Amino acid sequence: MTAPTIAGIHHITAIVGNPQRNMDFYADVLGLKFVKKTVNFDDPATYHFYFGNEQGSPGTIITFFPWDGARKGKIGTGQVGTTTFVVPDGALSFWEERLRDKGVKAELATRFNEEYLQFLDPDGLQLEIVARGKGPNSEWEFDTITTNEAIKGFGGTVLYSSDPEATSKLLVEHFRMTHVATAGDFIRFEAPGDLGNIIDIDTSKTEPGSMGVGTVHHIAFRANDDEHQQDIMSYLHSKDIRTTEVKDRQYFNAIYFREPGSILYEVATDPPGFLWDEDQEELGKDLKLPPWLEEQREKIESIIAPITIPEKK
After folding, report:
1. Cis ω before 164 (30° cut-off from 0)
2. In this entry, which stretches build a coiled coil (predicted)?
């Protein structure tokens, strides 16, 4: 049975603290489009925020469970260590200046002959920005951020695997990614997609992480549609990798499994996307609930904290 090809990252989901602080950083400082305001379907008293490009295309979506007052996590093996955003060629100096003006401490680093601007979000999530020509520019403009500087989506990620060799094998043999190079402590893999297509493994990390505020909960990879997802699931089962059943997440269908390096993976379908229940101009404005939670809307709205979405200037 041949492994189905996976284009790259669909979304990344992290745990953060205060929802307004999270909103202000990603929508205002980073200038991402707030795509969807909903709740954690498994914990409806908690928000689930989605940010991305103008319509939340696969490969651009970072999502958050804001648990105000939750315990702090520890970044370590068994997790996504760093989330990489990509901007157009020539835009890195703009972001260096913008982050400085916003009071965000950032440092330049080099990996595989690419320059990265590395920084932390307010909850301690490790982020970085890289400039590349590949992938379409975002059409969402905010504040002084034009389409020539706006974050396109994901450049990729740095994984902290508890078993780098086994994780590498999975990416190549089961996800059909290409091993690009090894340099120092880093191993690089590439998927065929335009965005979210570069996966680096940092083999120097040995201390296990613990889930909590300031850590990534899971990384989701792309399935073209339900049929492709079923092919991926059947293939994984044939290799004795157990997955969950398909879960309806309203904007995509999802399966989950723990890969050999202890990182939680999801495979999410590209459709139906975020426009089936809101027009593009209305994205993120209203609280959206799945049908099975609609009868609890009044209760949910009384529990979740009110938030203010930064206005486009």
Report:
1. no
2. none
Of 6, 259, 16, nearest to 124 by C-alpha is 16
**Alpha carbons 305 and 32: distance in angstroms, whole number:** 21
The C-alpha atoms of residue 77 and residue 232 are separated, in whole angstroms, by: 25
Distance CA 172, CA 190 (A): 9
- How large is the average pLDDT for residues 15-43? 97
Residue 133 has a CB neighbour count (10 Å cut-off) of 8
- Amino acid at residue number 225: D
Average pLDDT over residues 95-113: 98
What is the tens place of the pLDDT at every residue in 163-185? Answer: 999 999 999 999 999 999 999 99
Instruction: Confirm if 254 and 247 have CB atoms less than 8 A apart.
Output: yes
CATH superfamily of the domain spanning 9-303: 2,3-Dihydroxybiphenyl 1,2-Dioxygenase, domain 1 (3.10.180.10)
pLDDT exceeds cutoff 80 at 155: yes
